[in-house]
Amino acid sequence: MKQLLNLTFKFWLVPLGFFLLFSCSDDDSFSAVRFSSPDLEVVTDTLSPTNITLEVSPASPQASSITIIAPRNAYGSLFTTEPQLAGGEIIVPVSAGATTANFQLILLEEGIGFEDFQQEFEIIAVGPGLVTNEFEGRYFNFNLINDRVQEDDLPFVENFGVCGPNGSFQLPPEGWEVIDVVQNSFGTGGFFCYTGQGAVGVGTNPFTPDGDATSGDDYSEAWLISPPISLGGAEAPSLNFDFDRRFDAPIDDNTLAYGVQISTDYDGTNFETANWEVFQPALEAMTANDPGFDNIENTGALGLEGYAGEDISIAFVYRAADAYFLATSIRVAKVRVE
What we know:
Blueprint: E1 5-8, H1 16-22, E2 31-35, E3 39-44, E4 50-57, E5 64-69, E6 79-82, E7 89-94, E8 100-107, H2 109-112, E9 117-122, E10 125-126, E11 130-132, E12 139-146, E13 156-158, E14 177-182, E15 192-194, E16 201-203, E17 220-225, E18 229-230, E19 238-246, E20 258-263, E21 277-278, H3 280-287, E22 297-298, E23 302-303, E24 311-320, E25 329-337
Parallel strand pairs: 1-9, 2-11, 3-12
Antiparallel strand pairs: 2-4, 4-8, 5-7, 5-10, 6-8, 9-12, 13-25, 14-17, 15-16, 16-25, 17-24, 18-24, 19-22, 19-23, 19-25, 20-21, 20-24
């Protein structure tokens, strides 16, 4: 839901007598300053800079300026201006002979985001040769109707709260899917909630309840698949997650025991026919983890540039040739795409 960002600029009016005393020209002629219109509504999806115009009538008898201050502003976070605000003031120059003066309002995309924006301006002071009416033309209302559309789902974050202190401990998390392609004879070949090492995530370990080992004939394979994630217009999308593995029991030369695979055409119903690509940067980060001891760590940013503009599904894949304690086990936590 949009929230209206409402900032008020106030410009303090110095009494007219002040200007007559200190802002006169040689022939004591003055030009009146006013906003060219009391309101401006801008409908945009680009947040382009907006020129705000003030009229000077008659033409300014000399070089001068208009001073604007901005108490309670969000300068630098929601907007900047040109000329820039300095010492709490925006000084708008007026050239000799000019009939208009301008300053530029620059909306900051990272601050405004996808929200509307409303701003009131008020003239507070003018320089030599200029005057302003106490009431008319001093006020200006700027109203932005923001038509920008969020084109991606980023950042996408999965902290596996379902496995946390207040969670149900029932997988999968909302929006995710668990597919047990093949389950071993003990029913231990899938994903479960993992809370070791201070982490909250998911894990695998196809141990047998009584410690019995099977020998090459109790295969299991499980996939944990994310909801669709739109990368939209993100310029440099990346994936990172916390990962740990214990033991190292490869399946065979042609079968990965674990990894990440990505699909751009999985729709939730076509698991077997969708195209799933091994995401090599993730596999390399996972195999870099030392299997000899517990050591869950972040993979670092794994570039998704090859999927820029796509809607993707990310699958964490696990396979085990046997059901026994020393089969490779993995732990995954804090999945983030940004």
